[in-house]
């Protein structure tokens, strides 16, 4: 065991359990111990014996040393905003929170190799009320964006210091979510994109929705919100996403036509605004560019044609993907030739003791990616016959 490790850390057992979407009962049954024992381990009231610890390590997929480590940085977790709060189980939400905590911890170590852009979120302290049109204008001004459609908001978010990743590979289904963390007093903003990997239009809108959460984090306390208030908050973020991606003046000009009651008109506009036809129709309603009756007619057309699930142009349009994580790892592993052992050792020095497979899973890297340099430099001795 590393000399940097201390005594058993029960909090890490809880973290590993939540990471795997397991209950105390699940772990107890597989480890062959009582629920009370697992509870005592997690609260540091008792320490597992070596045999039990080996079982727990195997069950949870974390190295034994992980359970004896401590974080080298002070981390304060803020609210996590899930788009599908109702549809997502509490177990899965807790798992995602633990995964994003490890993701940020790993990204901070990667930041010792790579200089990522500084976080640049516009100041919202002067907003007395939430005006999504005003907030969208603020973002465009701070980020130097013209009053034009934004083809790839994910790219803009990464350029301005937001860590963007896709849902972790062992996740079956979950929508996008976002979180603010304070790491050693420094604000870290994270957006995890959902399972809409094959739909560039929805993904662009989801990214804008989560950006709204990051910007308006101080306006909400998730734990205090009722279901109705949570829905209202999500509606506000959708309105912000529409305001940011579909600029009011430009869109108003486009809808100065009799075609605004033709569903195909909105499908054609998808290419220009990089959001779904459904989102464009909703935006038109919010701006009162179409009447309630026209809105209902268009949405009925969407349903009748089966476009609620998949619209025209969805499949043939390339998916938008985060780039900075993979580019950073390419520089470290492929260009600088850092071995997986060296990288994992750097993580361990920062109290992050994980198997390479787990790190690859968290960073959405191909399995075995970190180990590609581990055999380089070995002397091969062959003899002639």
Automatic annotation (TrEMBL):
InterPro entries named among the record's database cross-references: Cro/C1-type_HTH (IPR001387), IrrE_HExxH (IPR010359), Lambda_DNA-bd_dom_sf (IPR010982), Rad_response_metalloprotease (IPR052345)
Signal peptide: none
SMART domains for the chain: HTH_XRE (SM00530)
Coiled coil: none
Pfam families: HTH_3 (PF01381), Peptidase_M78 (PF06114)
Transmembrane segments annotated in the record for this chain: none
Stretches assigned to the HTH cro/C1-type domain: 13-67
GO molecular function terms noted in the UniProt entry: DNA binding
Family: Belongs to the short-chain fatty acyl-CoA assimilation regulator (ScfR) family.
Name of this protein: ImmA/IrrE family metallo-endopeptidase
């Amino acid at each position: 065991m590393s000399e940097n490790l201390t005594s058993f850390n029960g909090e890490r057992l809880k973290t590993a359990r939540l990471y795997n979407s397991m209950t105390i009962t699940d772990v107890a049954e597989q480890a062959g111990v009582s629920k009370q024992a697992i509870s005592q381990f997690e609260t540091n009231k008792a320490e597992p014996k070596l045999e039990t610890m080996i079982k727990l390590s195997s069950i949870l997929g974390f190295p034994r040393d992980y359970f004896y480590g401590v974080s080298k940085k002070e981390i304060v977790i803020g609210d996590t905003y899930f788009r599908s709060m109702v549809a997502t189980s509490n177990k899965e939400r807790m798992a995602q929170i633990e995964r994003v905590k490890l993701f940020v911890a790993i990204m901070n170590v990667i930041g010792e190799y790579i200089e990522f852009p500084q976080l640049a979120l516009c100041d919202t302290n002067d907003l007395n009320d939430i005006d999504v049109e005003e907030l969208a204008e603020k973002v465009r001004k701070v980020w130097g964006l013209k009053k034009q459609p934004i083809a790839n908001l994910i790219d803009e978010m990464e350029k301005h210091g937001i860590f963007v990743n896709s849902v972790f590979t062992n996740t079956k289904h979950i929508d996008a979510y976002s979180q603010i963390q304070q790491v050693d007093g420094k604000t870290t903003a994270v957006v995890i994109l959902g399972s809409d990997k094959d739909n560039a239009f929805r993904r662009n809108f989801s990214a804008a929705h989560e950006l709204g959460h990051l910007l308006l984090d101080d306006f909400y306390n998730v734990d205090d919100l009722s279901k109705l208030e949570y829905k209202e908050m999500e509606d506000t973020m959708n309105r912000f996403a529409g305001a940011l991606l579909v600029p009011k003046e430009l869109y108003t000009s486009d809808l100065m036509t009799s075609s605004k009651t033709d569903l195909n008109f909105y499908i054609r506009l998808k290419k220009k605004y990089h959001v779904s036809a459904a989102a464009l129709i909703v935006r038109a309603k919010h701006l009162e560019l179409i009447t309630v009756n026209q809105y209902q007619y268009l949405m009925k057309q969407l349903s009748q044609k089966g476009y609620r699930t998949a619209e025209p142009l969805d499949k043939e349009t390339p998916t938008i993907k985060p780039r900075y994580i993979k580019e950073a790892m390419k520089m470290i592993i492929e260009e600088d030739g850092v071995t997986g052992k060296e990288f994992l050792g750097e993580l361990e020095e920062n109290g992050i003791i994980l198997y390479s497979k787990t790190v690859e899973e968290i960073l959405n890297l191909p399995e075995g990616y970190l180990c590609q340099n581990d055999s380089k430099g070995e002397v091969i001795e062959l003899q002639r016959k």
